[in-house]
Amino acid sequence: MALIELTNVRKTYRTDGMELHAFSADRMEIDRGEFVCVAGPSGSGKTTILNLIGAIDCPTTGSITVAGRETRGLSPSDAARMRRDTVGFIFQSYNLIPVLTAYENVEYVLLLKGVKQVERRQRVSEALVSVGLKDMMRKLPKEMSGGQQQRVAVARAIVAAPPIVLADEPTANLDSVTGRHLVALLHRLNLEQGTTFVFSSHDPVIIEYADRIITLQDGRVISDRRC
Amino acid sequence: MQRSRQRDGHSSLFSLQRYTIWVKTFLLFAHIAFRNVRRNARRSLFTIVAIAFGLFCLIIFQALKVGLHREMVVSTVQLDAGTLQVHAAGYEVNLAALKKIPDPGKVIAALDQLGETRYGRRVKTSGLILSGKRSSSVLLSGVDPSEEQRVTFISGKVVGGSYVGRNSGIVLGEELAQSIGLGLGDEVTVMSQDMSGLPVTGKFPVTGIYRTELAAFDRTHAFLSIGRMQEFLHADDVVSEIAMRSDSRDEHALAERLALALPAADYQIRTWKEIAPDVIQLIDLNDATMQLLILIVFAIIAMGITNTMTMVVFERFRELGIISAIGTPPSGILMMVVMESCCLGAIASLLGSAAAVAACTYLGRYGIDLTAFTSANQYFANSHVLKAHLLTKDLLAANVITLLTAVVGGIYPAWKASRLKPVDAIAHT
Ligand SMILES: Nc1ncnc2c1ncn2[C@@H]1O[C@H](COP(=O)(O)OP(=O)(O)OP(=O)(O)O)[C@@H](O)[C@H]1O
Ligand SMILES: [Mg+2]
Fold first, then answer.
1. Do B327 and A81 touch (CB under 8 A)?
2. Nearest CA to ligand 1 atom 28
3. Which residue of B has its CA nearest to A117?
4. Model confidence over B175-213: pLDDT tens digits?
5. pLDDT class of A114 with cuts at 50, 70, 90
6. Which residues of chain B lie closer than 8 angstroms to A67, CB-CB?
7. What integer best gives the mean pLDDT of chain B?
8. Whose CA is nearest to atom 24 of ligand 1?
């Protein structure tokens, strides 16, 4: 059984009585340890598919299982628990809780999970070290650069060692060098820890890193290739 | 993985570690809430000042109200009525003839038994004061000066001559003396009825003039020593009224305890609330008005808080979406927002209370001079200065209400925030 399985999934948005087809796929599987990039032009459904996998949104029809659990029909609190336990998120920008320091932002998810103090301290430090921000622990988001903030978000996404990390255009707001570094970092974590990464991007430089590229257009998969 | 979650979900639900984590999460939310209050300092300050001001006003109004009520009670009890009065059974205020209390010694013994030592034996009847061509009807009181001084404050209000003494003449209110043209040392003719209803006339020198803050009282009350009065009315050893003053706040219970010793067949016992029902009615009316005021003020405060918190939630739409996306349950978000509004309430509570305590201390010492408004007001017989009297329980209650209001005002926006869909919030950049 694959880590992520989409079966006959269809997501439509209804605005002003108009049905808008945002994403559909008959069958899609993502295995443990994959480093997947979802590519495609603006409006092609990249955010939609990531939101569906992350149980932030649910499909109009079809079924999605993540780590063996069905995401459809979850109550808001069950969906929150599912996200807490199985997914790490990195968004495009403004990822962090502005009033918490880098350390506290990373620690937050562990507190939600009820990890005890000693272990928490160790894991937060490890996560911050692995993204190269050992010296930034006490800084607030506004005291850090965009790239540093994104790295804190990465640390937060991986600190609880979830099976999946989802990143929706994590480099879109970064300059190309910083963006490249970030993806290299994700790739390293993928290799070192075996975490499954699914990220979206339309930046060809970044797509290069991926070992599987799923290309979308108008809400449909037009190519799915491994490199 | 699922199995392990279930296992520690059950077995360690009550363990200390769970508890510590829970506390830690609570503290985290509180920490976030507090930092968020500081984040938009200006808006928070406006809200806090508004709440604090509402609280401040209420504490002061409440303290002034308590001060007013105390003053009203003092004016009633210590002007003449006392806390309790004992009469012979069947006594009525307007009886022309004197009604003798059977065995006054028994009443005194009963009062002593209760540990109440401030009582005054009186002979009280109505009479007419004549001077030259002028006359005025008055209530004549024969009092034992040493006893009476412990019940009423009239002895402290003497402005000319001296208070009633064993061998003194009559003591008149200043208004009365002036209106019928009497001064110290002048002789005055007094007419009344004796025990058997026959008219009696006596002449007494004016030996004292008093002035309370209540002109209407001064015009109609004259005092003699009880001995002179008994002699004048041919009523040897007669006592018609015993008034007592007690610090007990429960005069009703006191009356009941006294009634055990004094059978209703022979004695009538009345509390000041029965003697002056208008006072207690006015107090009750004030209390009800105050409650309505509290309700209105706190409803306005709650709306203000709801407004602020709604704005806060709206502004942090995306941020809350992220917080939700990374796994915070809706209940956690609810808690976070309510805590923020509690934080506003708590800071406002501290500020409002501190300011109010300071103001009440000042108003408790110096008061507000109401002479212009109350000189003809029976509830200000002792003094026209209204002093604040802050009770600890009122201060606590006001603070508890403020915090509850903050919770109530925060609940709706918090509920809204907790129901927000992370997908919409994240799209909102
Ligand atoms: N909440 C919504 N309501 C209505 N339509 C929506 C909503 N969210 C997305 N869509 C539509 O669904 C389609 C797919 O959107 P999606 O955001 O997944 O694209 P994307 O590939 O992430 O684009 P971008 O590169 O611009 O982020 C688009 O046509 C978009 O307009
Ligand atoms: Mg997108």
1. yes
2. A43
3. B21
4. 999 998 999 999 999 999 988 888 999 999 999 999 998
5. confident
6. 1
7. 89
8. A42
